[in-house]
């Protein structure tokens, strides 16, 4: 693997692929399941951002659990390294769904694209418990393996809660059937949790059983702006003012107040609370086609997208309108608009979901995905802006309702000078707050060596023991997740 900022030395313990290996794979998968075409393989060797480049020589397209099992069993015996890949939308370096309509449980293969699953269950009156900007490409197997969070997390929680069962193929080809659809099952250790979020390092997920919430008839989306520091002054009272730091602090309190108010006033119908700063809006307006700023009257510092989902159209809308009015009266919100139709609602969501797409158009993106106590969440963005100066553009956005900040630093090209301004500062700062350096994207290649900023050495040692137990030849997703020194 190599990337603009790091180069990984190949571990000589792995075998080198030869023509006998290719013949064996063809005997299992047929000609069409074994891709050697350099251009096609090259696509799978580069991540979504174009930042990390692998050097795999072969792409295998298994269609069944049995095929995955045979591949792994062979690779393990030959000590050939394997990188599991779903939709390849990860940001850190076939498909037959079955449905239980009474209990709302979907059972499907790992290669199902999230958006296709959403359409499938929506036709039956349910929704997927997760939604993300990459839905058109990412696979449910990839979602499980990264424990993707996304835009509905505030309402439906983590995949650790929604996933009821998994089928996983271990590194030696053993098929581990944990594909239960039971809501309650306390018989021994709940092993599926080991594979949720383990980024393909412990096994390959081949089937998934997942709980899907009912699709509710009324959805409303509001786009709000929060005042700048001068308006905060009015709210908090002039005598408190004095320093920039205090302004910032006051501002953050204001934002948290809005989140608390939303939780209290909207309660059970709140289904998304996303935020972005004005730099994100400017970027979205510049690079995303067909979107427009819903609140163009004035350039505000922050924008919040709130979605409600409930069962009573007029009651839900009245609730959101009352919340918006009250928040404006209380000075929490400067301006706001509720989408009047689907096209307005899509425009609001397109802005929020399109930030990552707009970011990569600038050239180089240094991407950080942090969990930080909400009251400190924006401090790191401001601190980073000071550190980076005019070398780059710093964006802060994310899932504020979950305490999850996406910090993106944009530049026209990758440089060591820029990286030195960002790292290790960003990790040290997050560690000091007892935050997480990977809230929802995983560690991947990018942060495998940084895990200690968020996990104790005892925890990392235990993870290494589990890895050695399940994948003694370390063939699964080499160089990712855990530091090389513990393996
Ligand atoms: P891939 O990128 O192919 O793989 C990701 C990891 O999972 C790799 O380590 C891979 O080895 C492993 N893997 C894949 N499939 C399997 C399998 N079947 N078994 C075992 N291991 C496997 N993430 C969020 O959490 N929240 C978001 O809101 C979000 N929004 C995004 C928006 C955009 C525009 C983009 C590009 C990405 C976004 N992501 C988000 C990141 C990414 O989409 C998720 O991590 C997604 O879950 C990855 O799925 P994938 O199928 O593309 O996996
Ligand atoms: C998001 O919330 O938009 C995604 O996690 C992607 C990103 O971090 O850019
Ligand atoms: Zn996200």
From TrEMBL:
Its main location: mitochondrion. It is an enzyme of class 1 (oxidoreductase). The keyword Metal-binding does not apply. Residues 15-215 form the FAD-binding PCMH-type domain. Its cofactor is FAD. The keyword Oxidoreductase applies. Signal peptide: none annotated. This is Probable D-2-hydroxyglutarate dehydrogenase, mitochondrial. It comes from Oryza punctata. The chain holds residues 133 to 619 of 619 of the full protein.
